[in-house]
């Protein structure tokens, strides 16, 4: 398995319920935050383009609770890329005393669009984004240069 893009955080008390565990919606928020930080740090030119990524589907499976003040690593990988869509996976890993525990696993599918709000049309995944994502692929993904005829 190839590498992953990592977003590290310490869970704040504001992200927890009154009894101290994280609400399910925060997992989806962290998916978006991880993806956006990837775009900002790895593909900054894309932010100046009129390409937008619209989430089509997001999901999360929970294995153990994440609590306020937990050290968390959200690890994003590329699962699939098509002409117009990208599917990511996210591992939510708690770290305590040097030990890692997989707390949840999520998935998000996005589509590329271009154009003004309300007039946007589906677009191909820009080459710069595809190239930036390939090192984070779960399995090798064929590119135009590596596909057989």
From TrEMBL:
It comes from the Bacteria. This is Acyl-CoA thioesterase. InterPro entries: HotDog_dom_sf. Gene3D superfamilies: Hotdog Thioesterase (3.10.129.10). SUPFAM superfamilies: Thioesterase/thiol ester dehydrase-isomerase.
